[in-house]
Write a structure and sequence with these properties.
There is one protein chain. The protein is an alpha/beta fold and about 300 residues long. The chain contains ten helices and eight strands. It folds into two domains: about 210 residues, Spore Coat Polysaccharide Biosynthesis Protein SpsA, Chain A; about 70 residues. An eight-stranded mixed beta sheet has the order 7-5-6-4-1-2-3-8, sandwiched between helices.
Length: about 300
């Protein structure tokens, strides 16, 4: 009998944890009774009492394994740490807020049994506001255009992973553990299951625009060298323009020595333009340097405070 491990990162989700646990149990009992399954909940030092809810569940059900982090290490690092602890034949990553519908689990398993090593949910609709939809759509278009490997639009990496894929991901020890970037880089082609994202029923998301922006920038830096190449090309182009402008003013001054008076405006505009270009490019170069530094100094995804029901 095959075993499926459900990997569920959570932060301030005490209201959603029991609901998700019940929903998964119901689906597995009704539609996938031929499979064994267990849970790994990774609590990111939630201040709302989520850890106590998880401990109560773990005491009542030994299939519920719990990792409590020492502090909030971010959802990606916390999820990856729990993901690598999965020991089933496959692992399914679910968000605890129920915006990743558990109803898709049978579809994931069916595609997996048909031979797919990775199965992802692909969002085709949501209830988020127009500005957020536009920003998200722009992000996917940019990263799909600039990335060195194939990218999949409107996927975040939640879905099913075969045990063989888990082993490959574990060997990478990538300090920027975004599954939507790692899987295409390894050459896996995920099977896609479309879904419409429901509204969040309980609690409030800890993600805001700036956290989404940080994730998007990190994703771009870790999947593409094109921004650096754009910097080189644009730097060469602006240097050429500056050289031509300098040559023009030099020649003009020689020809009209006594009457030429260009004023300070061209000088000021030129200085501010070149300064802004340099600052922008330094920021991009800094992101790449930070990515390299994080790889060199990487030790572990999280520091764990406690593990429960991991006796095996």
């Amino acid at each position: 009998m095959k075993t499926i491990t459900f990997v569920i990162p959570c932060y301030n989700e005490r209201e959603n944890i029991p609901a998700l646990y019940a929903a998964v149990n119901e689906i597995m009992a009704q539609k996938l009774p031929q499979y064994k399954y267990d849970f790994i909940f990774a609590d990111n030092a939630s201040p709302d009492g989520s850890a106590q809810v998880l401990k109560t569940m773990a005491a009542a059900d030994k299939r519920v394994r719990v990792i409590i982090n020492n502090r909030n290490f971010g959802v990606d690092r916390s999820c990856m740490n729990a993901f690598l602890a999965a020991r089933g034949d496959a692992a399914i990553i679910l968000a605890c807020d129920l915006q990743n519908p558990p109803a898709l689990i049978p579809d994931f398993v069916k595609l997996w049994e048909s031979g797919a090593k990775v199965v992802w949910a692909q969002r085709v609709g949501s209830s988020e506001n127009i500005l957020m939809k536009a920003a998200r759509g722009l992000y996917y278009k940019i990263i799909k255009t600039l990335s060195d490997v194939k990218q999949y639009e409107y996927t975040t990496g939640w879905g099913l992973y075969d045990a063989g894929v888990i082993a490959k991901v574990s060997a990478l020890r990538d300090p920027a553990p975004l599954m939507r970037n790692i899987i295409p880089d390894l050459g896996y082609e995920p099977a896609l299951v479309p879904y419409c994202q429901p509204r969040r029923a309980r609690g409030k998301s800890s993600y805001n625009f700036w956290r989404y922006f940080d994730t998007a920038l990190s994703s771009l830096i870790n999947t593409s060298k094109v921004p650096l190449k754009i910097c080189i090309f644009f730097g060469f182009f602006t240097a050429l323009l500056s050289g031509l402008a300098g040559a023009y003013y030099f020649a003009y001054k020689l020809l009209y020595w006594d009457s030429f008076s260009p004023g300070i405006a061209p000088l000021v505009v030129g200085i501010f333009f070149l300064s802004s270009v340099q600052i922008f490019f330094l920021g991009i170069a800094g992101e790449y340097i930070l990515a390299v530094l994080s790889r060199q100094s990487f030790t572990s995804y999280v520091i764990e405070k406690e593990r429960i029901n991991f006796d095996d």
